[in-house]
Design goal:
38% helix; two-stranded antiparallel sheet; TIM Barrel; 292 residues; 10 helices; 8-stranded mixed β-sheet
């Protein structure tokens, strides 16, 4: 059977996917806002372990078309292991359509274009990249480990390898002081990356994380739903993408928006303009229905 260790996290679009824990935890695990893997010691699982779970899934699950490789940093595993894993998945599931993974900028830095191209040919075709911000001050405060220019550089390696990118921006990550700078710089970085998908999350300073401790000490200010709407509008207004799918469907968001850019850009901006003009009528998602 499939054995999971600790909590599992996956993107909203992977709700129907088979999840395999290729790694436990995250090899970097130093971002100030992230509490997902702080209770796990990072390790890469063996191909033999994973083959056993794939065989169980083959015998007990029907219609597996998508597989998500967890935990937070599976792309950091050796290319040979990932290639063997992808071969095993295709042998087990004739209808396999897509394999995806979280990709940290650190993992993208060590993976060569040639390695990523080979993995894409074997089915690893979508990376979820937490860009978080394009503002270097915000990235430094989040301890992301890269600046905006390095984020663009490593993301372009994946694009050169033919991999689709789904990028995430963390609304509110700059606090009130850097809100608009964060929004506009994030749009510049996303424009430079030119991903297939772009989504927004809202920063959630959790207890036990450095950001949560900063919030408790009064060193970080969370934005109100209306301020986040201002920030989101500034971000969307500066996006210049062709054929990109935009979503704010993560459970942390106060507003759920969706569209294809640039086709739906004016509609999305219009929705935000109505919220900003009449906040008393805005249908913000209540906190009880929001989550990480």
């Amino acid at each position: 059977m499939i054995r999971y260790e600790g909590d599992l996290y996956r993107p909203p679009s992977e709700a129907e996917s088979l999840i395999l824990q290729v790694t436990l935890g995250c090899s970097y695990n130093r971002c100030t806002f992230c509490g997902m893997y702080r209770d796990k010691r990072f390790r890469v699982r063996s191909l033999a372990e994973l083959r056993g779970e794939i065989e169980w899934a083959r015998d007990h699950l029907r219609g597996v078309r998508r597989v998500f490789l967890a935990d937070g940093d599976a792309l950091i595993a050796k290319a040979e292991l990932l290639e063997g894993l992808l071969d095993a998945l295709h042998e087990a599931f004739a209808g396999l359509h897509r394999v995806s993974v979280y990709a940290s900028p650190q993992a993208l830095a060590v993976r060569s274009v040639e390695e990523m191209a080979r993995l894409r040919e074997k089915g690893l075709s979508l990376y979820y990249l937490g860009v978080e911000s394009g503002d270097d001050r915000v990235l430094a405060a989040l301890n992301k480990g890269v600046d905006g220019a390095e984020m663009v550089r490593v993301a372009r390696k994946a694009s050169e390898a033919g991999v689709k990118l789904s990028t995430m921006i963390l609304l509110g990550a700059g606090g009130r002081e850097f809100s608009l700078d964060h929004a506009r710089a994030s749009a510049r970085v996303i424009n430079a990356i030119a991903p297939r998908f772009v989504s927004t999350l809202v920063v959630s300073p959790l207890p036990g994380t450095p950001l949560g401790e900063q919030l408790a000490r009064g060193e970080f200010e969370e934005l109100s739903p209306l301020e986040l709407a201002h920030e989101l509008r500034a971000f969307l207004a500066d996006l210049e993408l062709e054929g990109a799918i935009f979503r704010s469907n993560h459970a942390s968001n106060y507003l759920a928006l969706a569209g294809t850019l640039p086709r739906d850009k004016e509609r999305l901006l219009g929705s935000l303009d109505r919220v900003l003009a009449h906040p008393e009528r805005a249908r913000f998602i209540p906190d009880r229905l929001r989550g990480l």
